[in-house]
Amino acid sequence: MAPLSHTAPAYIPTKRGAPWIPPPPASGLPTYISWMPTPPPRFLPWPHLAPPPPPPLPCWSVPQVPCATATGMVQRPLACVASAAAGNANEAATNQPSPRSVLAVTSPPISPTTSLPTSFPYRLAPPAPPPTAGHAAPTPPPTAKRSVAARPRHGRRSSRVRRTRSAPKPRRLFDPTSELTSFMIRNIPNDFTRARLIHILDQHCSIENEKIAPGGVRSQYDFLYLVVDFRSRANKGYAFVNMTSPEAARRLWTHLHGHLWAFKSSAKTCAVDYADLQGQDNLVSHFSGSRFDCDTDEYLPVRFEPPRDGTRPAEGAMNVVGRRITRSRPSDEN
Question: Among 233, 226, 175, which residue's Cα sits nearest to residue 198?
């Protein structure tokens, strides 16, 4: 027998459904409990439970609630809210794409986006102050210039002399108040020859001189050089011409500048600017010391004495400026 504390009452069932309450123990005497097995108690039957609720319907099968006009937000149906709350535990599974095709005809409509704000909700910071002399912005490193090494001559090994390529010179645009007379004609078709360019200049001078009253300044030119590539025998697209007066220079610029060449479907537009060398004397002095590696005088500069004015036949001589390089051919040995 095991002693039982007298401080807690003992409930020992002797009959089914009714516990036996022992009398209070006497002071100073232990109380014993019998460990004999007792029959199990009889329980009341469990009441009938209600059937479980049906599963929630998918979100796309429930009619959508129209947007609230006050807040501009879309109110989701209660079924969607319940399904979203139930799926918080399996967030990874919820983020997976739905097995239902998003391109199906019965897919839920796309919620409209909220309207963009009409004003910027944040304040802009004031512009940064300009850098001071002590904290100036770092200057970018200078760009490297492309250098060209000198080629060795006569089989000798030359030193690595590097020459930097100079930047292209700025164009000298036409000024109607200027007294300059020498032009650089650009964007010439590459198939043009010197004879064809002379024909165009003669035709221009002839038309302009017919408009001039007797005693007026005539349109004339006294120097022409069409730059040609001696290997391809085609011009490089530009030429130099000198008019005899500023009035004649203005007429030529008005006639040629912006002119679209109608020559073999050429898409070039003529551009006329001032040349760096001005006047016949400076042009002749510059090209007189030049040597041209070609086999014909047709590619050399020419000067006209007297100047050409478009009369036919042209009066005056055409003098070549500069000299050609003559190459001696080895004689055939018999």
Answer: 226
Q: Is 253's pLDDT higher than 90?
A: yes
SS3 percent helix, strand, coil of the chain, rounded to 5, is 15, 20, 65
| Nearest partner of 309 among 227, 206, 208, 240, judged by Cα | 206
- Is 281 inside any structural domain? yes
Residues 149/162, Cβ–Cβ less than 8 Å: yes
Question: To which residue do tokens 């930097």 refer?
Answer: 164
Q: Which CATH number do you get for residue 198? A: 3.30.70.330
Instruction: Name residue 210's amino acid.
Output: E
Question: Rounded to whole angstroms, how far apart are CA atoms 310 and 244?
Answer: 13
Structure tokens at 309: 């004015």
Buried b (16+ CB within 10 A) or exposed e, 184-208: bbbbbbeebebeebbebbbebbeeb
Residue 257 lies in a domain: yes
**Segments of the chain assigned E as strands:** 2-4, 12-15, 18-20, 31-33, 147-149, 162-164, 182-186, 221-229, 234-243, 271-274, 291-292, 302-308, 317-320, 323-324
Q: What is the pLDDT of residue 113?
A: 46
Quick check: 63 pLDDT over 50? yes
Task: Give pLDDT, residue 163.
Answer: 58
Half-sphere exposure of 201 toward its Cβ, with a 13 Å CA cutoff? 29
pLDDT at residue 260 in the model: 87
Token look-up 């060209």 returns 148
Task: Record the tokens describing residue 98, joined without a space.
Answer: 């739905």
Residue 235 backbone phi and psi in degrees, to 5? -70, 160
Taking the C-alpha atoms of residue 189 and residue 126, their distance in angstroms, rounded to an integer, is 56
Q: For strands 12-15 and 147-149, give the pairing.
A: unpaired
Task: Judge whether 68 lies within some domain.
Answer: no
DSSP three-state, residue 147: strand
**Is residue 52 situated within a structural domain?**
no
What the block records as the tokens of 301 is 């500069």
